[in-house]
Specification:
The structure is a single chain. The chain folds into two domains: 1-27 and 110-199, Rossmann fold (3-Layer(aba) Sandwich), CATH 3.40.50; 33-108, no CATH class. Helix content is 55%, strand content 12%. It has helices at 15-24, 32-38, 45-54, 67-75, 78-106, 137-148, 152-160, 165-171, 182-197; strands spanning 5-9, 28-31, 111-114, 129-134, 174-177. A five-stranded parallel sheet has the order 2-3-1-4-5, with helices on both faces. It is globular. The structure holds adenosine-5'-triphosphate (ATP). Adenosine-5'-triphosphate binds at residues 9, 11-17, 116, 143, 147, 178, 181-182, 185.
């Protein structure tokens, strides 16, 4: 039985950076953010369900989902957000499971699922290995502001909408501290990769 591995972390903690480092070392990634786009692509039953719930006004003229428009709508309305999650999350889970199973059956691939909200959605317990990229909130805010050109208040609001650092750390089997340099992070990923791939 291959082990199930998930990579997570707070916003701007360094998940994508770690995912890239793991992929360089040979991990095969299954990225929940990409799957979340796939399950509402044109022609999917996911998109049909979104249109049923929110109306054709959430479509662009070319028939693709207006993600920014829908995002603004659900950001302001908790019930709408819950409805959207109820459409998207089960489909993402099913697709992730199918991808992971196919990859695991095919080869000795070390499959790493990248799921930013695995703690928030209560799914961390489904995994044998829960890798949490950890940075202190001040570092997250600084990186978020630098990358997304946000004000301090906007960056803090995005952090506040997520699980707390303590909640995420409580779910971790492996923590990758990332408040230091990229070189330090790469060394930690090397050590983790050795552990994940040693029999
Ligand atoms: P998001 O939650 O927004 O998807 P993320 O957790 O995937 O973000 P990254 O995109 O990997 O985080 O990193 C956030 C920003 O911080 C990026 O601009 C990245 O280049 C930078 N960064 C990550 N790790 C370090 C580091 N150790 N030193 C300096 N900058 C870093």
């Amino acid at each position: 039985m291959t082990q199930r591995i998930v990579l997570t972390g707070g916003i701007a903690s360094g998940k994508s950076t770690v995912a890239d480092l793991l992929a360089e070392r040979g991990a095969v990634l299954v990225d929940a953010d990409l799957l979340a786009r796939e399950v509402v692509a044109p022609g999917t039953d996911g998109l049909a369900a979104v249109v049923d719930r929110f109306g054709a006004g959430v479509l662009r003229p070319d028939g693709t989902l207006d993600r920014a428009g829908l995002g603004a709508l659900v950001f302001a309305d908790a019930a709408a957000r819950a409805d959207l999650n109820a459409i998207v999350h089960p489909r993402v889970r099913a697709l992730a499971e199918a991808r992971r199973a196919a990859l695991a059956a095919d080869s000795d691939a070390v499959v790493v699922e990248v799921i930013p909200l695995v703690v928030e959605t209560g799914r961390a317990g489904d995994y044998d290995v829960v890798i949490v990229v950890d940075a202190d909130p001040a570092t997250q805010v600084a990186r978020l502001r630098a990358r997304n050109r946000l004000s301090d208040a906007e960056a803090r609001a995005r952090l506040a909408a997520q699980a707390s650092r303590a909640e995420r750390l409580a779910a971790a089997t492996h923590v990758l501290p990332n408040a230091g340099t990229r070189a330090e992070l790469a060394e930690r990923v090397d050590a983790l990769w050795c552990e994940l791939t040693s029999p």
